[in-house]
Structure formats: structure tokens, C-alpha cells
Amino acid sequence: MIVLEDMKLYRIGELAKIAGVSERTIDYYTKMSLIIPETRTQKNYRLYSSETLNRLERINQMKQEKYTLEEIRAKLELWNDVTDETDVTNKLSALEMHMQQLEREVKELEPIISQLKPGQANRAYTHLVPQSLACIEAIRILLNHGPFT
Predict the structure, then answer these.
(1) d(CA 53, CA 57)
(2) Residue 30 in contact with residue 11, Cβ under 8 Å?
(3) CA of 128: how far to CAs of 50, 123, 133, 135, in Å?
(4) Which residues form the HTH merR-type domain (predicted)?
(5) What is the C-alpha to C-alpha distance for residues 28 and 79, in angstroms, rounded to an integer?
(6) N or C: which end of the chain has fewer CB within 10 A?
(7) How far is Cα 21 from Cα 12, in angstroms, rounded to an integer?
(8) E strand or H helix at 40
(9) pLDDT digits (tens, 9 = 90+) for 92-118
(10) How many angstroms separate the CA atoms of 88 and 80, rounded?
(11) What distance in Å separates the CA atoms of residue 50 and residue 10, rounded to the nearest whole number?
């Protein structure tokens, strides 16, 4: 680790170890512009900031939520456009991402649900559906018809 003007900077190996990913992954993400080195050493080694660690955590979280790397890059680019409404934008983006994840999970469950016996399906829907639908509908209204459109 190198400290430059009160900023911790990490070489690729250090960053990979702390983030729990391989050096090849760091290289690949850099080539895809998912992460960007803060600076370079005199010998042209890339140095990454602590913010890169946060970005890698976001990338890993979105990968677990089954986003493609291209979708992740698009989301990260949106997050880079910081506005005065940053908090609201971040929360709405997080809600949108979560809804997309839920939609993916529902699609994955559809084949399983279609194989349930009628009694099993009714029990599952009775316990989960009313509250979930109300919550999803409220979020959709906020995103589509709220003061932000």
C-alpha cells in the first residue's frame, strides 16, 4: 500500500487480495472500464484508491444479483453522474435494481410454481402475495407516477 496525499493507494495484487478477487479480474474490470486506476507509479504500475474497493463490492453484489457486466457498467455510469439529488437518486436506483432482481427471481420460480399442486400454490400465495403485491405496487407508483417523472 502506498499513501499519497492522505489517500491510500493499492497495487493490483494488494487490491485483489483485499477485495477477494483475482488479479486477472482486476485487469479485466480495468479493461472494461468498470474500475479505473487512480494513478500510475514511475514504473507504470497501476495504483487504485479505496473507492475502487467500494466499487468492487458494488460490482460483486450486482453479479450476485445476476446482472451482466454490461448492465453493471451502465449502472455504474449512472451512479457516476452525481447530482444535487444524490441521495434520492441512489435510493431510487437501489429500488429499481431490487425490483429488477425480484422480477428475475419470479421468472426463475415460474416453472416451479407451475408444477405445484393447487393446494400448495394456494398456501404459498395466501401467505406471500397480498403484502408483496401491495409493496411492489407502491414502489411502481413511486417510480412511474411520483414527483420524479
Answers:
(1) 6
(2) no
(3) 41, 9, 9, 11
(4) 9-78
(5) 21
(6) C
(7) 10
(8) strand 39-40
(9) 778 788 878 877 887 787 787 778 787
(10) 14
(11) 8
Number of H helices, E strands in the chain: 6, 4
Lowest mean pLDDT among 39-43, 124-128, 144-148: 144-148
* Distance of alpha carbon 87 from alpha carbon 110, whole angstroms: 35
Q: Is the full-model pTM beyond 0.90?
A: no
Q: Tell me which residue of 32, 34, 30, 24 sits closest to 46, measured CA to CA.
A: 30
Distance, in Å, from the CA atom of 126 to the CA atom of 33, rounded to the nearest integer, reads 46
Residue whose grid cell is 487480495: 17
124: number of Cβ within 10 Å? 13
For 147, phi then psi, to 5°, come to -70, 0
Q: What is the mean pLDDT of the chain?
A: 79
Q: Residue 25 to residues 21, 34, 99, 134: CA-CA distances in angstroms?
A: 6, 11, 28, 40
Cell numbers placing 120 = 400448495
